[in-house]
Write a structure and sequence with these properties.
NHTrfase_class1_PyrdxlP-BS, 12 strands, 2 domains, 13 helices, Aspartate Aminotransferase, domain 2, alpha/beta, L-aspartate:2-oxoglutarate aminotransferase activity, Aminotransferase, seven-stranded mixed beta sheet, Aspartate Aminotransferase, domain 1
Length: 400
């Protein structure tokens, strides 16, 4: 009898975490390493949120809470959805989990049966397919390449839907590409979904507030009210409020789904951290004045990175609408040999050689379901980004 579960063989460790860990290890050894793998803002959690957490501790709010969120936070989430997305939810339609990842995982665990298919546009966040596999479902990646700016078309979505399709996972702006769907592009997808009433929509809106230029964020149930009863609108405080370590995600959806997700959570982690919930309450109810300056900062970083990477030989880097990632294509680098003699046979070899020879850590594209590419997180200072991009330029210039 095998000791480890057969389920474990269906999944793999997160490549983004692996890259970050490797970069940290090399740095600890004294190497000059620039890590561009981590997907988290580089500034501190805002002071008002930190103060709310301290006040919660001092008030003794350190005990168990309701399994899927304190009532005050659920009420604040309802207000947020109405205020920012035009979506009306009641508190019994809201769930709060230990990060956005748990929200998605709970929903899949609560709904997927063997044979159920989940459509996932690729490039995708690395955890989507593995969470589907853990839940017993079948991930169905659909590649949306650089020719469509990494956005799934209505025709592609229509072709991917089968009688076995349970969910369509939608992420805009996207991790890893930063691609954001316009209202017209999203409406084309929702029109398809309206023709297939057995398909549910899981909308991962984690990067909602990180959009640039004149891009307007929209979410599926907002665009098409007819999808409201089969949409789980997911979000969290991690990215916009620089609260990655606080681990608070949330979602709004139909009562029976939210209740089922609560059942999963009650027998796994139980409630999210009590102190983090009070911090999230302040994040949603308190001042939002820092969001615009943060957006402007990220936009400058995006423009810098896109400009410099497009000057690298063999690299094409589209300009994304949001998030804090770019996803350059390196077709012009494949098949060449690095200055240190490494054959760049694919994007994994590119990323490995780049780290060893220049000290720049990026995540290779195959991890996200589309090659040959790599992902850069530009959630770090402009000086560091300039240094990293120059190293990438030099590395690419040395390929023969």
């Amino acid at each position: 009898m095998a000791f480890l579960s057969d389920t474990l063989a269906r999944v793999k460790p997160s490549p983004t975490i692996a890259v970050t860990t490797k970069a940290q290890e090399l740095k600890a050894q004294g190497r000059d390493i620039i890590g561009l793998g981590a997907g988290e803002p580089d500034f501190d959690t805002p002071e008002n949120i930190r103060n709310a957490a301290k006040a919660a501790i001092d008030a003794g709010k350190t005990r168990y809470t309701a399994v899927d969120g304190i009532p005050e936070l659920k009420k604040a989430i309802c207000a947020k959805f109405l205020r920012e997305n035009g979506l009306t939810y009641q508190p019994n339609q809201i769930t709060v989990g230990t990060g956005g990842k748990q929200i998605l995982y709970n929903a899949l665990m609560a709904t997927c049966n063997p044979g159920d298919e989940v459509i996932i546009p690729a490039p995708y966040w690395v955890s989507y397919p593995d969470m589907v596999l853990l839940a017993g479902g079948t991930p169905v990646p659909v590649v949306a390449g650089i020719e469509t700016q990494f956005k799934l078309t209505a025709a592609q979505l229509e072709a991917a839907i089968t009688p076995k399709t349970k969910w369509f996972i939608f992420n805009s702006p996207s991790n890893p590409t930063g691609a954001g769907y316009t209202e017209a592009e999203l409406r084309a997808l929702t029109d398809v979904l309206m023709r297939h009433p057995h398909v549910w929509i899981m909308s991962d809106d984690m990067y909602e507030h990180l959009v640039f230029d004149d891009f307007k964020f929209v979410t599926p149930a907002q665009i098409e009210p007819g999808l409201y009863d089969r949409t789980l609108t997911c979000n969290g405080t991690s990215k916009a409020y620089a609260m990655t370590g606080w681990r608070i995600g949330y979602a709004g959806g139909p009562v029976h789904l939210i209740k089922a997700m609560g059942t999963i959570q009650s027998q796994s982690t139980s409630n999210p951290c009590s102190v983090s919930q009070y911090a999230a309450l302040e994040a949603l109810n308190g001042t939002q004045d820092y969001l615009a300056p943060h957006r402007a900062l990220f936009q400058r970083r995006r423009d810098l990175v896109v400009d410099m990477l497009n000057q690298a030989k063999g690299v094409t880097c589209p300009k994304p609408e949001g998030a804090f990632y770019v996803y350059p294509d390196i077709s012009g680098c494949i098949g060449k040999t690095s200055a240190a003699g490494t054959l760049i046979k694919d994007d994994e070899a590119f990323a490995s050689a780049l780290l060893e020879e220049t000290g720049v850590a990026v995540v290779f594209g195959a991890a996200f379901g589309l090659s040959p590419n790599f992902r850069v997180s530009y959630a770090t200072s402009e000086a560091i980004l300039e240094d990293a991009c120059r190293r990438i330029q030099d590395f690419c210039a040395g390929l023969k």
